[in-house]
Amino acid sequence: MYIKQEYFLWKLSYHLVANHQFHILYMNKEKSEIWLEKEDKGKWHVVRLIHEVFNWKNQLKRDIDYVQAQIKQNSQLFRGGKMDLHYVYVSEFPPVDEWESLDIATNRNIQKVNIFYLDDKEKESDGGRLYETLQVERPVFPDHLDEVEYESQSLYLKQQLHTLRKKKQKENEQIFSQGKLFFTIILLVVNFIIFGLMEWQGDSTSVLTLIEYGAKFNPAIIEGEWWRIVSSMFLHIGAVHLLMNMLALFYLGTAVERIYGSIRFIFIYFLAGVFGGLASFMMNPQVAAGASGAIFGLFGALLYFGLKNRRLFFQTMGYNLLIIIGINIAFGIVVPQVDNSAHLGGLVGGFIASMITALPRIPGKSSRLAGVLIYIALVSLMAAIGIRNDEGGDYAAAQLQISQELIQQEEYDRAIEVTTTAVTNPDEYEAELLFNRSYAYSRVDELAFAKADLERVVELQPGMAEAHYNLALIHQTEEELNEARTHAAEAARLQPDNENFQDLSDELNNIE
């Protein structure tokens, strides 16, 4: 009896949804077809139930092939992990030929395919295999219902499933509407205002201006200016840096603030920014600034959301987000000017901060406590390592940056003062610091000091052509022509395409 098969299908579907946390992917009440899904230990079970009559095995095979093609075409609905696919056919009679021998292909996403053909005769035995495979108990079916009761019960079950589906859809929609854009806009405005002030009163690409406005400057942090970890989050080095970060903040901030709510969003943003700043303090001795650490923290927040909502994550942003994160990290590794330590630190910090805040309406008291303990332990460790690095002279790099800018601004006395302090503990930057100091000495007519510095530079780095060239100029000024020729020739040999080096060498060789 047709209506009895209908009732069986909708009763079984409702049992899986209401009692075993299966979710409805697709539902067609007129065609009597429904798709369900459930995650179990990292694997997804997708169940397709349909009331259909197949007289021959080939008809069944064509239907399965059609469904496999639909899955491939709508692959975004089936992302997020490995999948077992279960076909459940409800019918009064089975195909007349041997359908059990059907060979169904799998792929990298579909690990296993099961076919259950539940005709009236086989419902008991094959139904048992279905329940065992899905690890659910058998639903209770009434023994005696008349046709009218079967029909009314089927209509009721369809309506209940429709209601459950709408409820789940509403819950998913609410996940992305926990907050409105508030702090994202405020952060954008504040960053633009501060950048405008920097450009109005100085130059945002100037190291000295950045330090004055609160950039991450390790020597100052060591002296107690820990507030720079936060203030550096609002400074940007040039318009391109600002625009790139603000574009990322707008898109990521919109997503995170809507998922987590405004209060959780700003909490995650600042905790991630602090974490990224301390990672930079620990790993990067250069002067640094930018919102990148906090912005990568928003990536971390979305990854945490993906951990808690895998299916929804991969159906919406999943693979695209992972690709963007990978590209940004790779870019940071390839381009040395990028503070990759702040990026990775912000990513980790954002993930941990999301553990602390937790997602709205999802309990997680133990994970929150764990997040707090992990965060405190890691920021303490990074601060301690950063302080210890200072004792090893790791911050000569920052002084090198400052001296270069002072020379560009023709503040030679200050450049000499900065480099003289730095060379007392130069770490790996002794040659570069001495080269800068020698140039500053030469500009204030202290040629003896400049020559001594350059002689030490060529001892440390014999391949630095610029040092040989400058040393040749000083020897030429002091009429020490043999020494001048030697260094000029070495500079020309090291950089044969440099016309200035070649011209000086030729000029000295032509002097009698």
From TrEMBL:
Compartment list: Membrane
Segments forming a coiled coil: none
GO BP: any one term:
proteolysis
Q: Any idea which GO molecular function terms this record carries?
A: peptidase activity
Entry annotated with the keyword Membrane: yes
- Keyword Endoplasmic reticulum carried by entry: no
EC numbers for this chain: 3.4.21.105
Q: How does it sit in the membrane?
A: Multi-pass membrane protein
One Pfam family of this chain: Rhomboid
Q: Which Gene3D superfamilies match?
A: Rhomboid-like, Tetratricopeptide repeat domain
* Spans through the membrane: 175-198, 233-253, 265-283, 289-307, 319-338, 344-362, 369-387
The first-level EC class reads hydrolase
Query: Which keywords appear in this protein's UniProt record, sorted alphabetically?
Result: Hydrolase, Membrane, Protease, TPR repeat, Transmembrane, Transmembrane helix
TPR repeats span: 465-498
User: Which part of the chain is the Peptidase S54 rhomboid domain?
Assistant: 224-357
Give the family per the record.
Belongs to the peptidase S54 family.
For this entry, the protein name equals Rhomboid family intramembrane serine protease
